[in-house]
Specification:
- By secondary structure, the chain is mainly beta.
- It has one domain: Lipopolysaccharide (LPS) transport protein A like domain (lipopolysaccharide transport protein A fold).
- It is built from two helices and ten strands.
- Strands 1, 2, 3, 4, 5, 6, 7, 8, 9 and 10 form a ten-stranded antiparallel sheet that branches.
- The chain starts with a helix and ends with a strand.
Length: about 190
């Protein structure tokens, strides 16, 4: 009856291993990644932001207003509440770009305007007033360039054009390229 002894030996070994496992200290938890909130810590807030960047000529080139600006040091980015970007022209009225929220890259070369976006330009000596309504606009402020993949409605007087996607060069001579599904409605004078 060698089997009962073998079973007894196996049971004693299992009991010993079980006792050893129970009496081991708990394993060290691996270091956890920093909490998401610490990555998004704000180092400063500006309320009522109103800044202007001047052109080499000494005239305003661009201005940025926002209800609130929050800077994040972890990635050196900035978030904006109710931003208004003004792109001044050498001649004629400026373009005003307004949105719900915004995000500015660390080097300032990319601005993402999120939510509803409205772009307006008042009438000037050589142009009619124009308003563009869209969502989620990408702006390259140093090139005065903006684009979106979203639906766009362009209105000037009683005329309107609807499209999907847009590229806009806001520096004189300003031009807008509508990318797809373009449909227009013109009301003769």
């Amino acid at each position: 009856m060698r089997h009962p002894r073998a079973i007894a030996v196996v049971l004693v070994l299992l009991a010993g291993v079980s006792w050893w496992l129970v009496n081991q200290p708990p394993p060290q938890e691996p270091p956890s990644a920093p909490a998401q909130s610490s990555l998004r810590e704000v180092d400063y807030i500006v309320r009522g932001l109103d800044s202007t960047i001047m052109a080499p000529t000494g005239l305003p080139a661009r201005a940025l207003q926002a209800r609130e600006l929050r800077h994040f040091p972890a990635d050196d980015t900035t978030e904006l509440d109710r931003p208004v970007l003004t792109v001044h022209q050498k001649e004629g009225p400026p373009w005003l770009i307004e949105s719900d929220t915004g995000w500015v890259s660390s080097d300032g070369t990319l601005v993402l305007l999120n939510g509803e976006v409205h772009i307006t330009r008042a009438a000037g000596a050589d142009n009619r007033p124009v308003r563009l309504d869209t969502r989620n606009l990408r702006v390259q402020p140093y090139q005065d360039y903006a684009e979106t993949d979203e639906r766009v409605r362009v209105r000037s007087g009683k005329d309107r054009v609807d499209a999907t996607g847009m590229q806009a060069w806001l520096r004189s001579p300003a031009r807008i390229k509508l990318l797809a599904d373009v449909k227009g409605h013109h009301v003769p004078p």
